[in-house]
Amino acid sequence: MDEKDFEMLDALDKTKNITRTAEMLYVTQSALSKRLASIENELNARIVVRSRQGIHFTAEGEIILKHARRAQAVLQDMRNTLDAQRGYVCGSLRAGVSINYSAYRLGKILADLHMEYPHINAQVSTDTSVSIYHKLCIGEYDIAIIRGEFPWDGFSQKLATERVCMIVNSKDADVPIQELPFISRRTEQAYENQVSRWFREHDLRPDTGNISLGSIGACVQMVEQGVGWSIVPEIGLSKFSGKVTPLSFADGTEFTRSTYLLCHSDIAELPQMKAFIDIARNNAGR
Question: Any stretches that span the bilayer, and where are they (predicted)?
Fold first, then answer.
């Protein structure tokens, strides 16, 4: 077995599907199946079983997968140690970034990272903050940029805090919001609880199920088209031309949304991690 085999097994575990794994690794399904059979013959073990629902790792396969991931980690640690001895910043990092944050900040972060540190191999994925947080906790990511409050014992850096605002199309600026459809956004429960609290404190009972979207940008676009009103953080409002009202709770506390950079403490001092952290800090408010 070699590193490509380790990568293949990891991808199979994530996708539970031969076809999707082959597409992810840019190989044919036939080539992947042959390589999997070759590994099974080499180790004299059945790694996976197939069904209509996808593939499932056998007990032996789970053991092989566990050791393959351990070998991957050892090899990457060796590379990171070697890279740290060189005269320039290099090495690899696996980063997960909030899909909403990525829409407004990630492009500049990656452009600056490539410009200043061209030898860093940054493997970046976007997803919901909840999903990224869970993957960070189990070691699928080295570093993450997430929005909202999550418990974390490792390295943590607050990148930004912004106001949460009510937005309305200019033509509806004088219309009572009770008369307009509410455009809700699916996000983590803690944030939705804050929105519900604001509703209760202002005696509002909008229907949150009729229009429920998955991103800040989609909510803003709907409001711009005059579909209704919404509650979104400031990060998505730089080009919005309608009415924007920052929100506060009944006790006077501002309704805010924070973005954090999280990293495992044992690797936070690696040169490539420090480089990514510095670039992210510099772009936090842009």
Answer: none
